[in-house]
Amino acid sequence: MADGVSKKIHINKSDSLETVLKQLAKVKNTNVIIYIPRGASLVKEASELLELYNQAKSLGKEISIESVDEEILAMASLVGIRAGNSFYSQPARQVVDILPRKLSKAPVLVENYGPADGGRGDEEKGGEEPEEMGPEPRRKKRGTTGKKFVKLIVVLALLGAAAYYCVEILPTAAVTLNFQQTPWNFTGELVVSTSQTQISVGNNLVTIPGKLFSENKTMTQVFPATGSKYVQTYATGTVVIYNNFNTRPQTLIKTTRLVNADGIIFRLDKTITVPGGTMSGGVLVPSQITASVTADQPGSQYNLPSGQVFHFAGFAGTQRYQGFYAKSTQAMSGGFIGQASVPTQSDIAQATSSIASALQNVITSEIALQNTGEKLISGSSGFQITKYDVSDIPNSSGQFAVTAYGSYQAIGFSENDLVTAMASQLADTSKVNLQVKKYSVTYGTPQVDWKHDTMTVPITFQSMWEPAFDLAAFRQKIAGMNQDQLRQAIVGVQGLQSSQIKFWPFWVSRVPANQSKITIDTN
After folding, report:
1. C-alpha–C-alpha distance, residues 266 and 284, integer Å
2. Is 517 in contact with 172 (CB distance < 8 Å)?
């Protein structure tokens, strides 16, 4: 047969590789199509198909696979064999059982080979060939109903979300209430007392409780010294004196001399008493006391490093000389002889003014942190410098130190207490429960009695009042009402001059149940 003609053979489910190869050897055509039924034992794994392909090659055959089993087709493609399902689609190389002679000069021959002994194959045993020979069935369009259902669900969800947005999110209600206004003015005196606990009004005099603010603070700053003069200064320092002699106290008078190994002498600045030592296990434990000392003479030779050991010159030649001694805990400094920078009177005046201002600002800031809302009017506070310490000996940089001691006091009060007092006075006059709409207070110059922590100040109180109205309770009350119910609720408000209702959007006819969607404006 011509090489261009394909030969199609059918194998049985139980055919082995050896059986199929024998069938291939009998076929004279080069191109052979092998139909493999579903569940054939030949192709349990792709390696078996690959072996079939290689053996066919050795026989000079170019094979392709047809089957209705998708797994067989997939394994054939995996090992490089052309494969197709003729039941659903045309293979790459068209094969037909009967072809009119006028359309082809080389018809395809279809033969069925049974077992190697020449018997009939699967057609007699109820094989799967009829699956391939029938007309192509009409495929049902799957998933159409499911897709329509999903679309319906999405549409309904969107409609529900839109309805919720229009009903719960968009609707708002705005109510404007204009109340009758009552002016009220007061001119008189306000007394604020830290000892007062009650509010009282009478005879153009209002008395309310007050709060005292008090702060004391110290500040040290250095300033440049512009003067110059010949000076002699004494070194100073601190020592620790030890009693390692006995258990009795020892008094050392002012100016008692302390001398070190180099003969440098310092003197006690004041009289002290050194405690007696203590006995522990038969051993004397030294006692100690700290004292300040000043050099015996001026000059820099007395500027000694710390750790100096001193003995008391007055005890020389006695056992006390070794038993009582002192050690410097810091360097001795300040000794000087010569021309040095000194502060002038102008330097001191500028320095004290500057440090006073800085100290006042610091104290005022700290008072502000203590303030919990009290009113501090101009003139209700007092600040003073109680003491200055000015060093007339500049440091090595030519700067002198100034220490200021400041005291600050202020009387504050709650302005709400003043408004409460005015409300009480107005209620006695009008016999109506009113609340302040707006007010302003002009305070005069206060008179402060720091001895009794009392402040008296003239005031002018100007205000506008309206009937008491609980806005939060009214908002809660009208939530969810329809228009008629809302109008009735508004009519019941006391002291109302006029009102206005607005719903939005246009289709809304009920106050939203959500109170955050309700706006109430009381002009």
Report:
1. 28
2. yes
Question: 3-class SS at 315?
Answer: helix
CA atoms within 13 A on the CB side of 300: 5
Q: Encode 129-160: b = buried (16+ Cβ within 10 Å), e = exposed.
A: eeebeeeeeeeeeeeeeeeeeeeeeeeeeeee
Q: Which of helix, strand or coil describes residue 141?
A: coil
C-alpha–C-alpha distance, residues 400 and 389, integer Å:
11
Reference 24, options 54, 63, 51; nearest CA is 63
Spatial distance between the Cα atoms of 397 and 195, rounded to a whole number of angstroms:
52
Measured distance CA(324)–CA(322) in Å, rounded:
6
Q: What is the per-residue pLDDT across 431-458, written as a single tens digit (0 to 9) for each?
A: 778 889 999 999 999 999 999 999 999 9
Task: Match 């008072």 to its residue by tokens.
Answer: 367
pTM as predicted: 0.50
Nearest to 50 by CA among 83, 84, 75: 75
327-386 per-position pLDDT tens digit: 999 999 989 898 888 899 999 999 999 999 999 999 999 998 888 999 999 999 999 999
